[in-house]
Amino acid sequence: MSPVLVAALVLLGLLIGLNLLLTVAVIRKLRRHDELLRDFEGPSPLPRITAGAVVPEFATEAVDGPLTAADLGNAPTLIAFAAPGCGGCEAARPQLIKLLAERQARGEQGWVVIADDQGDGDTLAGEFSAHARVIIEHPGHGPIHEALGVSVYPNYVLVGADGRVAKVGADLRDVAVPVPARS
């Protein structure tokens, strides 16, 4: 064999060995990354409160005055959670405004909780205030956020006139059906 061919084979063998070592290292990293992701407990896409639960007591300030859990007992209420700059919230906004107007016409309540810690919620508040009570809270830490366990946007909670949660969902279609009035 010629010395050039031997050198080429040795170089090829070294490259294959290096490739094998790098592949093993990448596989080990991916396995470790997979373990970390399995252990990750990020925010739930749905509120912690579930259908059938009574809404816990809370007191907060809406744009138009005080608001408490007792105010939910007046009529079925759709509570929408949104945030400025949230893509899903922006996409659902026209349908949400229409749904809030329809519910208002049926004598039902609508609340829109705007998660805002940057002072950008006033524009959204103006868009919703004709058809709903608007509350601006710190994301995840306001009284309604904590009572219902909401930390991801958009989210919707439908509460019956009896103060019990009827439905929860991250999609407006999940909660768009009417709730029977209290008899």
UniProtKB/TrEMBL annotation:
The keyword Transcription does not apply. The keyword NADP does not apply. InterPro entries: Thioredoxin-like_sf, Thioredoxin_domain. Residues 49-183 form the Thioredoxin domain. The chain crosses the membrane at residues 6-27. Keywords: Membrane, Transmembrane, Transmembrane helix. This is TlpA family protein disulfide reductase.
